[in-house]
Amino acid sequence: MEPREGEFEFDFGSATFEKPDANGTVIPQGMKLVDFIVEEEERLILLEIKDPSRVPRSTDARAIAAIESERRDFVRQLENKEWIHNELTPTARDTYTYLHVMERDKKPMLYVVLLGVDRLPFDAMPLLPNFRDRLLGRLRMETHQPWLKQYVADCLVLTENTWRKAFPGYSLARIPQTTDPV
Questions:
Q1: What would the pLDDT profile of 82-122 be if each residue is shown by its tens digit?
Q2: How many CA atoms lie within 13 A of 171 on its CB side?
Q3: Residues 120/52, Cβ–Cβ less than 8 Å
């Protein structure tokens, strides 16, 4: 079975990977960990996935309305600091802390946020370059002064289309989940 998160299925080639929040895995209380940790020879990729473009699990009007509401919230969060400050940065920091205390932080870390934006009601692309810069700035400075140790070497904010350019050796496919019976 290939690694999967929601509708996204990956093939990381010969790189090793783990899904820290897999069913049955105990996560330290209060920590948010990325969806995948991919270990390459020279670096660790911390992969976080946010996909408001997934299809509703049922054709029920409430399920469709919930997805539409989630998509509107997603757009709002791309435009402000809330998501960067309250979700993405703590997830990166917690994952780094977890890897550090497990003595697995010997390689540079690349934080990658994959956004499923293909079904949003607008073109999200103009928001992404600035979003990446704001995220990296926050990863490097969460208080009144910058972190003395830059635990994340860099970050990328990708979509399905830009994934292929950034990681040509790692395939990505969207496989919609089947809808629930009505």
A1: 889 999 999 999 999 999 999 999 999 999 999 888 766 66
A2: 8
A3: yes
